[in-house]
From TrEMBL:
Keywords: Cytoplasm, Repressor, Translation regulation. This is Ribosomal silencing factor RsfS. The keyword Hydrolase does not apply. NCBIfam families: rsfS_iojap_ybeB. It comes from Kribbella pittospori. Functions as a ribosomal silencing factor. Interacts with ribosomal protein uL14 (rplN), blocking formation of intersubunit bridge B8. Prevents association of the 30S and 50S ribosomal subunits and the formation of functional ribosomes, thus repressing translation.
Length: 125
């Protein structure tokens, strides 16, 4: 069974929040056929620890305000290299570019269907 409508809504909102904080290479995968514990993964990266934390904070705020959703688990926030937010329906990975390159989650989950996400809106800077 594919990812639920709620999972897609959460992913889309999280991706928008990540894009607002200049996240790079934001991708989503439907892992519902491979994992029983979640429907989808969102993966995003940033060039430094501070930006990783800013993306995580923006995603958490967006999902809390718009969906009354809070992560049941949050790991790695102190280091800011790879933060995992577990919302049960979705799991969000925000990684420093180096960790993203080394662990290559998109390679690991490449057999899972990609979930289309909205393109980032260019800023007027």
């Amino acid at each position: 069974m594919p990812a639920s409508d709620r999972a897609i809504e959460l992913l889309t909102a999280a991706a928008e929040a990540a894009h607002d904080k200049k996240a790079e290479n934001v991708l989503a995968f439907d892992v519902s056929e491979q994992l029983a514990i979640t429907d989808a993964f969102l993966v995003a990266s940033a060039s430094n620890d501070r930006q990783v934390r800013a993306i995580v904070d923006a995603v958490e705020e967006k999902l809390r305000v718009d969906f009354d959703a809070k992560p049941v688990r949050r790991e790695g926030a102190r280091e800011g290299r790879w933060v995992l937010l577990d919302y049960l329906e979705i799991v969000i990975h925000v990684q420093h570019d180096e960790e993203r390159s080394f662990y290559s989650l998109e390679r690991l989950w490449r057999d899972c269907p990609a979930i289309p996400l909205p393109s980032p809106i260019p800023s007027a800077e």
